[in-house]
Design brief:
mainly alpha; 9 helices; elongated
Length: 192
Amino acid sequence: MRPLAPSTKLALANSLKKLLQKKFLDDITVKELVEDCDVNRQTFYYHFQDIYDLLRWFLAHETEQTLQGAHDWHEELMRAFCYLQENHLAIYHVFRSSGRDHLDCQFFSLSQALVSKLFGLYAGDLTLPEEDRAFLTDFYMYALSGILVRWISDDMKEDPEILVDRLTRLLEPEIRRAAERFANPPTGSTPS
């Protein structure tokens, strides 16, 4: 029997990642995962409800590990793109499966965290009603997530450095301008 990773959850996640290199998520079974880890099905179901629950945990864990130690939002974004590119086959096998919505949710979470950091950096001194800040955060979150999804759909052909540079040139000044427009609405406009 092979020794397990420090945690059973991590061992199952590593098995999922390994299997995703070979096949679509929809074709992976709990039986394959537990056989790869040398654990029983009961152990799997002790930690996870189903494969999609494992996928959610795996994506959150991988994101946390990938971004750990990044110095700023730009580096976090670059690391995210590089991770996706380095693991393109596994990502593709999730992206083209019924687990796609979990991947999209992870993109939304990542994008929201990055946009929130951008607002703190470039518009933190502005007073915005909370509903306006939430609206702007959502707007840019969906834009950034959409770029990630399009990039994956296009087979990750564009160089991540070029893409991150474009996003940086767009977002850094634009976040401030958008926040200023909402902090100082034109005279005669209705409040939020």
